[in-house]
Amino acid sequence: MSFSRTQPDPMGDSAPFLSLPEETAVREEPQGEEEGHVEEPASGVSNRRAALTVAVLCYINLLNYMDRFTVAGVLPEIENFFDIGDSNSGLLQTVFICSYMVLAPIFGYLGDRYNRKLIMSVGIFFWSVVTLCSSFIPKEHFWLLLLTRGLVGVGEASYSTIAPTIIADLYIADRRSRMLSVFYFAIPVGSGLGYIMGSNMEHSTGDWHWALRVTPALGLLAVVALLLVVKEPLRGAVESRPEQSLVHTSWLSDIRELSKNRSFLLSSFGFTAVAFVTGSLALWAPTFLYRARVVQGELPPCLPEQSCGSQESLIFGIITCVTGLLGVGSGVEISRRLRPSNPRSDPLVCATGLLVSSPFLYLAIVTAQASRPATYVFIFLGETFLSLNWAIVADILLYVVVPTRRSTAEAFQIVLSHLLGDAGSPYLIGVVSDAIHSRSPDSFLWEFRSLQFSLLLCSFVGVVGGGFFLATALFIEKDRLRAQSHVPSDDERIVVPKRGRSTKVPVSSVLI
C-alpha cells in the first residue's frame, strides 16, 4: 500500500484551527515548474510578507516583556499600596512564571499541530484583558493581583512557545540567526521599556495603576496586526530534502527523542541559569538600587501612603535596553563569524557570556553602597555579557531539533528554565532577604544588606550555567548533523487517514 501526502496545504491563512495532525505534514515541492511561472518560496510566504511577519512578531515580543517588567518598575509603590514584604513581592513574579511554564507544554503541543496564528491571537487578547483588569484591584485584595498575574501567563505561554518556530519556518542558516537576533532584541529592550514606562506613568499620573493600562491597549493592536499581516508558513519546508518527508509522531515519542538530545538538554540547563539571574535582577535590581541610595543618604525612606518614585527604575530600564541591543547583536555576530572555523562557537559564546558576566554582577552588588557610578558601570558590563545568550540559545534549539518537534522543544525548555530558574528565584531572593532582615527589623541598613546578600546568589548560578554551555559544546556537532539528516525510524508511529478517520501506524507499514 502507498500513501502520498499531496493534498493542498491547509496551514496558510485559511487553515482551520482544529486541523488534524496529518493535515499539517510538510508537502514536497514540485520538481518541475511550468514555463513562465514565478517560483514561490518554499515556506509558502513571500519575502515581503515574511519580513512583515517577523516585524509583527518582534513587536508582540517587545510588548510581552514590557508587560512582564512593568510591575518591577513600580514595585516599591506596590509594596506600599498593599503593605507587603519582600517575600510577597517576589511572589508576583513567581506566580506569573509558574503559570507560564505549566501552560507552555500545552501550547507547545497545540503549536506543533494546529494553526499557530489563531492560537497566538486568542492568547494575546486574553492576556491584554486580564492585565487591564488587574489595574483596578483594591488594596485589601492582594491575592487577586497574584491571581491576575498568574492568568497573564496564559497569554504569554501561547506566544513564546510558538513565535520562534514561525521564524524558523521562514528562514534558514545565517538569515534565520539574524532574524532571531532581531526577535530576541525584544527581550532586554522590552524589559527595559517596561521599567521606563512603569516609572514614567507613575511619575506623571501619581498613580502606579496607570502603568498597567498601557500594554493592554497595545496588545489589542497586536492582535489586529497578527490577524491581518502574519501568514502561517509551511512547517519545515524551507529545510526539507527531496528524499524525505517530515511527519508528526506522538507527543510521548517527541518527549522521548528530546530527552536523548544532549545538546538540547545541556543548553536548556545553561539557559536555566540565565533565567535565574535575569529573573532575580529584573524584579529586585531597581528596588536594591533605591535602597542603596537611601543608605547613602541621598533619598529618604519611603513611608506608607507615600510615593516611592525615584530614578532607579528609569536608569535601570535604559541600561537594560542598551545592553540588550549591544549584547544580543554582538553575540549573534561573534558566533556567526566564528562558525566557519569553529562549529562549536554557539555554546562557547554562551559560556563566555555567563562566565564573564558573573564577576561584573558580583562587583555591582558589593559596591552599591560605596559608589553609585561604579555600580552602574558593573551592571552595564554584566548585563551586556549576559545578553549574549538570548538569540544563540534559540538558534541552537532550532537546528538540533527537527521541525515537527520545535514547539514542543520550546515548551520543554520554557518549563525547565522557568521551573529551576526565574519561577523561584525572585521569591527565593525575597525569602532570604526577609529571613536576614528579621534579625534587625527596625534597621533600614540591615534591610539593604539582607537584599544585597541574597542577590549574590546570581553570580554563583551564572558560573554553573557557563559550565553547562561548555558541556553543550562537546555534543553540538553530532546533534546538529543528526537533526539535519533525520529520517523517521521504523518504530515511530505516524498519523494517516483510514476510512475517513485518523489512525496511528508504524512508519515501516506505510510507503511514503
What descriptors fit this protein?
single chain; 512 residues; mainly alpha; 19 helices; disordered N terminus
Explained architecture:
- It contains 19 helices and 2 strands.
- It has 512 residues and is an all-alpha fold.
- Strands 1-2 form a two-stranded antiparallel ribbon.
- Strand 1 (493-498) and strand 2 form a beta hairpin.
- Helix 3 (86-111) runs antiparallel to helix 16.
- The longest helix is centred in the middle third of the chain and has 35 residues, at 262-296.
- The radius of gyration is 24 Å and the shape is globular.
Q: How much of the sequence is in beta strands? A: under 5%
Structural class: mainly alpha
Low-confidence spans: pLDDT under 50, at least 5 residues?
1-37, 490-512
Counted by DSSP, the helix tally is 19
- Give the topology string: H per helix, E per strand: HHHHHHHHHHHHHHHHHHHEE
Radius of gyration: 24 Å
Morphology call: globular
Specify the helix fraction band. 55-70%
- The overall pLDDT, averaged over residues, is 77
**Largest sheet, if any?**
2 strands, antiparallel
Number of strands: 2
Strand order of the largest sheet: 1-2
Distance between the termini: 10 Å
